[in-house]
Design brief:
The protein is an alpha/beta fold and 389 residues long. It has one domain. Helix content is 28%, strand content 18%. The strands form 4 sheets. The chain has a 6-stranded mixed sheet, with helices on both faces. A 3-stranded antiparallel sheet has the order 10-12-13, with no helix packed on it. Helix 3 (142-158) runs parallel beside helix 4 (191-205), helix 5 crosses helix 7 and helix 5 packs across helix 8 (338-352).
């Protein structure tokens, strides 16, 4: 089957367990609800989207009523999302794919994937329409990544003129010496491959939706330039060539990502609600610098092959993010969540204290509690985490 071919959707109300067994199944998270589907079948519609006017639009445990058919509408968009008249023309419909791999014992990428699931299930986002897909660990193969990218395009195009689809992909893990994301089984995925896959889909299948990707890995090779992405493909890298992507863990009961880039992104989303995309990028960089300074200020540093090489710096690479409107809108959406506000309060107000910033913007950090963080890099140099005391 061609990945870009259009298949008839399954009848509404059909239990996927009644389908003929396949050699392998995967679990796909549609609107944060587990839905079993066969690897060779089309992406199932979210049950919670069938009747947007009569039921909860979000929730892991809410009951799903029996589907009822209204009239005899048979278009693909009706099968996917119910009556198109329910949706407003400017209603954003989110397609979010998270790819996370705990390569060689890392813990933060797949932890951060679970964090995103928790954040996007915040009740404050009940009015949002979010199509959430995950690929983690052994499921994150080049073939599956390409398949899910194709499915995102397919399902967003199936909407026609209904709503306004936004496609966002977050990839997190370890980077190798060629600035590729390491996958399990000795495989990897590069910027060049992702650009080629998306370009082929757009060219061969006529998909026109723009897409934004965030690549949160170490890019230790300073001599490896970034790939020029094709039109309509925005790529954000959490680190510039020659830099490491940092992760830090705060030992508290609050749900937090470990990625410094994502911590800075969330803090900026709350702190710059009325900002422009340009100011928003600057705010992310400011918070990221504050987090790196916090790591540098810890009495115990990271150990690498027995040497203390310091934490250095991390600057996001925005050079291939041409518009960033999707990235900015995603930030505005998550800024409303309880978790985002808690992260802002915890990271910005307590640990980096805006009120104590001097004229030069350098943070005056409060004393660190004992055993308060662990820190490490996610690059190709095998750094060993050290506990900051």
């Amino acid at each position: 089957m061609r990945l870009c071919s259009v298949q008839a959707p399954l009848p509404l109300g059909l239990d996927t367990d009644e389908l003929a067994p396949a050699s392998k199944e995967c679990t796909i998270f549609g609107r944060l609800k587990r839905v079993k589907t066969k690897l060779n079948s089309r992406f199932l519609p979210y049950p919670n989207l069938l009747h947007l006017s009569t039921q909860r639009r979000r929730g892991l445990t809410s009951a799903i009523p029996e589907p009822r058919h209204v009239g005899r509408k048979s278009s693909l968009e009706t099968a996917l999302f119910g009556d198109p008249q329910i949706l407003q023309p400017d209603q954003i419909i989110w397609f979010v794919l998270v790819v996370a791999v705990d390569y060689l014992g890392l813990q933060d990428p797949e932890h951060d994937l679970e964090f995103w699931k928790t954040m996007l299930d915040d009740p404050i986002l009940n009015s949002e329409i979010i199509y959430f897909i995950k690929l983690a660990g052994e499921e994150a193969t080049p073939e599956n990544i390409r398949k899910e990218l194709a499915q995102m395009y397919h399902d967003s195009e199936a909407l026609g003129k209904v709503g306004r689809p936004n496609l966002f992909v977050y990839l997190t893990g370890e980077g190798d010496d060629q600035n590729r994301m390491c996958l399990l089984g000795g495989k990897s995925v590069s910027e060049e491959e992702i650009d080629r896959w998306l370009t082929e889909l757009r060219t061969e299948c006529g998909y026109a939706r723009p897409i934004t990707l965030a690549l949160d890995i170490c890019r230790s090779n300073k001599d490896k330039p970034g790939t020029k992405m094709s039109h309509g493909i925005d790529l954000i890298c959490s680190a510039s060539p020659g830099e490491q992507a940092k992760a830090i863990r705060f030992e508290s009961d609050q749900a937090k990502p470990y990625s410094c880039f994502i911590l800075a992104f969330i803090a900026a989303s709350v702190g710059s609600l009325a900002s422009t995309s340009v100011n928003f990028k600057a705010e992310i960089e400011q918070h990221l610098n504050q987090l790196i300074a916090l790591m540098n200020s810890a009495p115990s540093k990271r150990i690498s092959d027995g040497d203390d090489d310091g934490v250095s710096s991390q600057t996001p690479d925005w050079s291939r993010g041409n518009h960033l409107s999707t990235f900015f809108e995603f930030a505005k959406m998550i800024s409303r969540t309880r978790i985002a506000q808690e992260i802002y309060d915890f990271v910005v107000q307590y640990y980096t204290g805006k009120e104590s910033l001097g004229p030069g913007g350098t943070a005056d950090y409060r004393p660190l509690p004992e055993n308060h963080t662990t820190q490490h890099l996610r690059g190709a140099n095998g750094n060993v985490p050290a506990v900051c005391t």
